[in-house]
Each structure stands twice: as C-alpha cells, then as structure tokens.
Design a protein that fits this description.
The protein has two domains: 33 residues; 74 residues. By secondary structure, it is mainly alpha-helical. The termini are far apart. It is built from three helices and no strands. It is elongated, with a radius of gyration of 26 Å. The longest helix has 36 residues.
Length: 109
C-alpha cells in the first residue's frame, strides 16, 4: 500500500515536471522558428515609434516658435525615445558584427 502511494506521488511529480519542461522548451524552440517574424514585428514597431517621435518633435518645434510652454513629460518622452532609438542602433550594430564574425568562423573567411 505504501509503495503504491509513493509510486503514485512520484508519478504525479514526474508528470508535472515533464509538462513544465515541455512548455519551457517548446516556448524557446518557437522563438527560434519565429525569430524572423518577431524581428519583422520589432522593425515595424520601431518605424511606428520613429514616426510618432518625428510628429511630436515637429509639434514641439512649432509650439516653441509660437512661444508656447512645452510640458516636461513631453520633453522627457522625446528624450527617452531618442535615447532608446540610439541604444537600439548600437545594439543592432553589435548584433550585425557578431553575425558577421560567426559567419566568418563557420565559413572560414
């Protein structure tokens, strides 16, 4: 009886561990297969953000010409987005350089 209870408990633990492992591994494998679609989505969102930043920047410039006060949160948003876009460019350049280096190692160039 005690052996059956232990076996049932161990079986349940193993089942839960397997389900969690499969979900974890499956999610990470899907990242590899969906990499390009995730990258395309990111590129589209970056373009949308750049367009919004340009639009707000133009409105702020026009407001300054008319000697209107610019809210601090608007200026902060413009600065934050500009910094984020600059960081993204640096990250992109680093990733591109790593890819070239990896390709050269594999291809022997």
């Amino acid at each position: 009886m005690a052996v059956e209870v232990c076996f049932a408990a161990a079986s349940e633990v193993a089942k839960n561990a397997t389900e969690l492992s499969c979900a974890f591994v499956g999610r990470h494998i899907s990242y590899m297969f969906k990499y390009q679609s995730h990258l395309d989505k990111l590129k589209n969102q970056v373009v949308d953000l750049e367009n919004a930043w340009d639009r707000v920047q133009n409105e702020v410039a026009e407001a300054k010409r008319q000697v209107e006060e610019i809210e601090k949160d608007v200026e902060q948003w413009l600065n934050d987005v500009e910094q984020w876009l600059n960081d993204l460019l640096i990250w992109h350049d680093e990733v591109a350089a790593d890819l070239v280096k990896d390709c050269c190692i594999m291809d022997g160039c």
